[in-house]
């Protein structure tokens, strides 16, 4: 999303659009399930405008990694009443500026569809988690059959008009190849159903 004035405009636009998404996914319940029980030191990558931050009830310290200045600028508005210590930093998931095995848990919420290099981001998350550490995620993945093939065709266009989102990523397979044991929850139904994105899943990936 970059920096500068365009970044601010896009960030405000994204924040408004995600208000609608919140209703479509029952955001408060989903975000509570994903981050509410995480403890210790947690890194959230692609934290956006900080929508998850109010739901960390048990973490000791949350580091929110977000490369867009426009997104970071909207985080303070989400911090009222937040329990853990929160630090917001400018970095990308491909190059996390932390030592090995620094965190007890990591969070990715609609991140892995937008990053430039999925494998590099997963490798970095694996590196900064302690052995047995947990990546808690909500993501969408490539569908099977005809819908999956339609996603392959549509991805180059959708990337341009949907904040860089690639709906045809085989994210779960890539997590397993990186060294995570993945536990998927039930698919999350979005209302209204996006014609070319999904299925959406929440789940956990444990660092082997
Ligand atoms: C779809 S938004 C999701 C924001 C947030 N997680 C939420 O729940 O609303 C994706 C976020 O990932 C950020 N992002 C994009 N590329 C990234 C990268 N390579 N590393 C880290 N964050 C990235 C974007 O700036 C954006 O804030």
Could you give a short account of the major beta sheet?
7 strands, mixed
Low-confidence stretches: none
CATH architecture annotation name: 3-Layer(aba) Sandwich
- What is the N-to-C order of secondary-structure elements (H for helix, E for strand)? HHEEHEEHEHHEE
Class from secondary-structure proportions: alpha/beta
Rg over CA atoms: 16 Å
What's the number of helices?
A: 6
- CATH 4th-level superfamily: Vaccinia Virus protein VP39
Please state roughly what percent of the residues sit in beta strands, choosing from under 5%, 5-15%, 15-25%, 25-35%, 35-45% or over 45%.
Answer: 25-35%
Query: What distance separates the N and C termini?
Result: 32 Å
Query: What do the pLDDT scores average to?
Result: 94
CATH class: Alpha Beta
Would you spell out the secondary-structure blueprint of this structure?
Blueprint: H1 5-25, H2 27-35, E1 40-45, E2 59-65, H3 69-74, E3 85-89, E4 103-109, H4 118-128, E5 129-140, H5 145-161, H6 171-178, E6 180-188, E7 200-207
Parallel strand pairs: 1-2, 1-4, 2-3, 4-5
Antiparallel strand pairs: 5-7, 6-7
